[in-house]
Amino acid sequence: MSIIENKFLDIDALRAVFVQQLTILYNAKISLTGCLPELVEQATFGNLKAALTEDLEDTKRQMTSLQAIFNLMQESWLTDKCLGTNAVISEAFNQVSFNQNEHFQSDMSILVYMSAIENMQVGASKILNLMA
């Protein structure tokens, strides 16, 4: 096994990685804002509806903050290179199917997938914060 020399990432490379990952996070939030209203309608448990509504509003505020960061950096936040993250979100929402006779299962599926998506966003945000 060979030892690779420890090299430092130059500022331009770090900026490029930061913008790329920030763009993926932003585009994930675009996907979420498209899906959350439907989940609010599908949810039957009152507290779940309230939590999803709150998450939608939080996501919109976060998007505004991310747009401000992009503007300060003079970068674009729109890209078609976020297929992986969008696929995870799309898969999660496609798995949640509302069935009036099985609303408990539907609500629980919403909780499971929203938890997974939240964990993905929190993890990405922590790494971006460290990079910043």
From TrEMBL:
Q: Which InterPro entries match?
A: DUF892_YciF-like (IPR010287), Ferritin-like (IPR012347), Ferritin-like_SF (IPR009078)
Q: What is the name listed in the Swiss-Prot or TrEMBL entry for this protein?
A: Uncharacterized protein
